[in-house]
Amino acid sequence: MSAVVAGASAPVTGATRRPRGGLFRAILRNRKAVVGAALLLLFILLAAFPGLFVPGAHHDPQAIGDLPLQHPSGSHWLGTTGLGQDVYAQLIYSTRESLVIAVVAGLGATVLSVVIGVSAAYLGGFADDGLSMLTDIFLVLPTFPLIIVLATYAGKGNLTVIIIVLILTGWSYGARQMRAQAMSLRNRDFLESARVRGERRSYIIVVEVLPTMISLIVANFLGAALYSVLTAAGLQFLGLGDPNSLSWGTMLYWAQNQGALVNGLPAWALSPGLAVALLGVSFALLNYAFDEISNPALRPVRRRRARTAS
């Protein structure tokens, strides 16, 4: 009889063990996550060490040269601007500002979404009504015209102002998702236990609620970063950024003003646009991958290979 009990208890013990590195393995098994992470890592390296990817003769991307509007060649891989500046060097050095905008604005919008959305769901009552009304107002506002107005009158060309504007206009959708998720958790047993123990509201929100929403918070950050990259590039392309700064949107602005396509220099106009698109693709792929990892219902069904009879 004791042998039967021992044998029955063995599978239970093994089943309760959690494999280490489960999230890391899930990311490696997801093709979207691998491709998105590889692209993002490449941009991080370009932003952190731009000098390693630029020939020594072009380490100053703002240096005015003697050969304006040159076609791509061995000395200028993507040609030169109207002032003789190397386009490839500007493309590499512009990665830093574009990535900073994406990360800082995305992080700020995510923090604001979490604070407003989770607080509204957990507090309830008048606080929920007021915060939900504020979220609905920002959701129905025409975002891009509002961004143009704020960026123009609050401080044209100021990078800090652009980031603040992106945060203020990019938090509402995430806050609605956070509120819906927190509402589904508000009456769970572990939260009721925390209330019975007499824990403070701030402790319950930070320690009990937020850890269960990590996947949604990460997905919200990636979506906000994608929004920030595309919107900031659009603002700078319209001339609402600092024309003397190094960013992909500013490169597009000068390529249009100096007639890159008219002068037969498509690489000058297309390369920053392609960089913006690839950075956006990296955030989008990581977003889709985290959705699939956190929600098994969204994972693609893989056909099993039929085993051939021996």
Automatic annotation (TrEMBL):
Subcellular location as annotated: Cell membrane
Database matches in InterPro entries: BP-dependent_transpt_permease, MetI-like, MetI-like_sf
Entry superkingdom: Bacteria
Residues spanning the membrane: 33-53, 99-122, 134-153, 159-176, 203-230, 267-290
Family matches, as Pfam families: BPD_transp_1
SUPFAM superfamilies (alphabetical): MetI-like
ABC transmembrane type-1 domain span: 99-287
UniProt KW Ribonucleoprotein keyword: no
Keywords, in A-Z order: Cell membrane, Membrane, Transmembrane, Transmembrane helix, Transport
Membrane topology: Multi-pass membrane protein
Record flagged with keyword Acetylation: no
Protein family according to the UniProt entry: Belongs to the binding-protein-dependent transport system permease family.
Protein name: ABC transmembrane type-1 domain-containing protein
Record organism: Kribbella karoonensis
